[in-house]
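Action item from last week, closing it out:
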Amino acid sequence: MRRFALFQTIFATLLLVFLMWPALAQQGTKMDPNAKTMTIEGAVRDLACPVQNRAGTATSFSLKCTLDCVGHGSPIIILTKDGHIYFPISPDMPDSSQREKMMPFVGKYVQATGAVFDRKGTRAIAITQIKELTNVHFDTSAE
């Protein structure tokens, strides 16, 4: 009987967490709990190349250049198909580096969800979920 009661309690707790998860995931950040949550798609790249070379896009860029720039410390960003640049930030204050979290996605096309911020054209996203989109065709041999 005790095992069954324990199982019921665990099951009820998991069900509650599962049902509440969408509401919990929409809570913005500690600094701005009302921040809008969005999902964006784009290439995880270095900042320098797309800013200086407008021919580079989210689907056509030099992977070698991107890896070289990131390897030398260039900030990592997400460049969307419409040309918007998003800086990954943490949901906490003080902010913490997102570099380690983003490194596995450099040179890949991703879908990222999180609280988004826009201040005079500078965009940031506090990523809560990120995954590679393998069905997007892009050319990483461009100059």
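Closing note: Helices lie at 2-25, 48-52, 63-71, 99-102.
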